[in-house]
Structures are given as C-alpha cells and as structure tokens.
Amino acid sequence: MPDKDLFESLCKFYEFMLGPLPARLEFKRTLQDTVTADELSAFFLLPFSGTITQEKLQKKAHKAGIPADVLHTRLNRLASEGFILAYDTPAGLVFERGNPVFMTEQQVRKPEDTPRRTFYAHLFNTFLEGGGHALPTKTPYYRVLPVEATLTGTTKSGTLVVNEVIPDPRGVLPIDVVSAMVQDVKLIGVAECYCRKTKRILGAGCEYPLETCLVFDELAQTLIEHGTARQIGHDDMMDILWQSEKLGLVHNVDNCLEEIRSLCNCCSCCCAVLKTWARGSTNAGAPSRYVVAYDADRCTRCETCISRCPTHARAKQDGRMVVDTGACLGCGLCVAACPRAANRMILRGKHPAIPRTNPALYSKIGREAILGTVRNKLLGR
Hints:
This protein is of the alpha+beta class. Helices cover 40% and strands 17% of the residues. A seven-stranded mixed sheet has the order 7-5-6-9-8-4-10, sandwiched between helices.
C-alpha cells in the first residue's frame, strides 16, 4: 500500500471542484470502503485535468513499478465505481479523472442496498437541498433546452402544432433544438436519474420515471461498459425525450455547443440543477437562450401555465396572469401547454457565451474552481 494518504489527496482534489466537503471524515472513510489505496494509486497517474492515452499511462505505471495487468485491473475498478472515465478516441483508449459529483452519481445508481450507497445518497441529498458550500465556480455545468415544438412548430409526428406561436426562425439555432443537439451522436445510453434515485433511497422520491438520463459517446461508453447505463437506439432516445416533455420534465444539457455527453430530463421536486436555480444560484444550471412572452388578450386565465412552470415564474395576481422573467428558465413547458397560444418564446436580450466543446467547458470550470478555492482560503471562507 502506498505510504502517502491517497484518500486525503483525493478529498483535496474533490474540494478543488466542489469546495469544502460536508461530513468530510465520514466521506473519507466511505471512500476507503469503496476502493483500495492500491487501486487509488492508478487514479493519481492520470493528469489533473484532460485525458491520457493508454500507452502513456502504461509507461507511467511501469516507472511506478505497476505491471500492465495490475494497472488494467485497477483502472477497471476505478471506472466501475465512477472515479474515472475510460473511452475510445481516434488516438486510442484514453482515461480521465471524474469529478466528485460524477462519482457520487454512480454510487447512488448502484442496485445494491448497502450502507455505502445510503451514505452517498445522504451526501448527494445535502447538495440537492443546499446544505453544502457554494460552488467556487461561475460557469454553469448545464443549460436548459426548450420544448422543441415551441421553437420549430413540429411534433414527434412532424405535424404542425395547433395554436402554437413560433419565434422568428432566424433566431432558432441547432443548439436550441434537442433533436439537433443529439442527431450526430454515435453511441447512446440511458441511466437512472441520480437525483430521483437519491430521493427514493431516502424515502422521499416522486413518481416520475427513473430512466431519463441520456448519455452519449464517451460517457455512454464508460457507463454502458461498467453496467451503470444500458445502450439504446436513436428512436428510443427520442421517445424518452418526447415522453419527458409530456410529463413536464425540463431538458438540461451540458453547457456547450457540441460534443455533449449528457442530457437530463429534470423535475423541480428532485433535480439538483432546478433546486439550485430556485435558490438563486446560477453556477449549476443556465436558462435557455429564450424567455417566455405573454399575450394577455389571448389568455383565458385557465392557470395551466402555473401548474406547468417548474420554477414558479407564472402566477395570478389581481385576476391577471403575470410572468417573472427573472425566474423563467425558458423551458417552454408553459408555451406548449397553453390551449390558447397566449405564451410564446422570444430570444433573451443577453445570454452568456457558451463554451464550444465539453472539454472546453470543464477546462473553464476547472480554472474557476482553482481560483475560487484560493480566493475562499484567502478570505477565510
């Protein structure tokens, strides 16, 4: 076993991304129950951020006295427990470190009812309910995609939506339309929603379906190969997306323009991103490029929009329907539900720049995490 306390090093690495860890001592003990120190030694052969090829990793392992077959076994264990990602690229098989939220997600998804899974569920629930420290980052991990019909005017069958008010098509980009965002993915997997799974483990779950988290390409490969997700086809994926819209779930996609890895279908009662938004924080999830506009002359005040809105941005005051545009995520659920087309989607006046790729997104978040952690330490937070 390595002389250095690698579990302490892992906690410090996770704190760079997440800030101070709640229940830190118990978290560290649970990490020791999840993987061994020898297995964890392979984690620290990987770069702090980015990927490393299998060939380069084997060379580093050889210098550290780790045989190739032992390295393979350790990497497989780390991937199966959510500590690392392993996937194929044009350069061959590569590996990268997973962040603490990703690791906790995979632990919650475990089918076995164990004390370890229960601890990770309690830990994740702490983040869900705002009990942890604020993230030391600014760039959101996810952003909302609107209900597709509210932007394109077409449904799953390709027919025009009756009574729908469609935005100026010149403002609609592929990055706003869910089917366009996922049309080029090669490998698709579906996994359980870790937010709803967490709540169910703790006896406080909702009735929305669990299998609604979509993963793509390299993330799909990692999760499928290690039993956390199952492979599905494009038609199955689109069925999940359409059904999610019917149920009133919100599409949250990686906050990048291309090379997306995940697309979640979120409920306001359990979702970490929506709960964070409701608390006024903007560094977990970003709204879509759209916001709802309301036509009072069309409205019959049926209040359907109120029950459909996941962020309580719709309300009735003095007999009139009102919109809190600051709380609006631009999901389009109220637009799709309105029987009189009294709501429509319009472009926001200002929207933050969106990183181009997934690696660019997490590279930016990583830099912010380091600077934020250093700043918090200097300020004694």
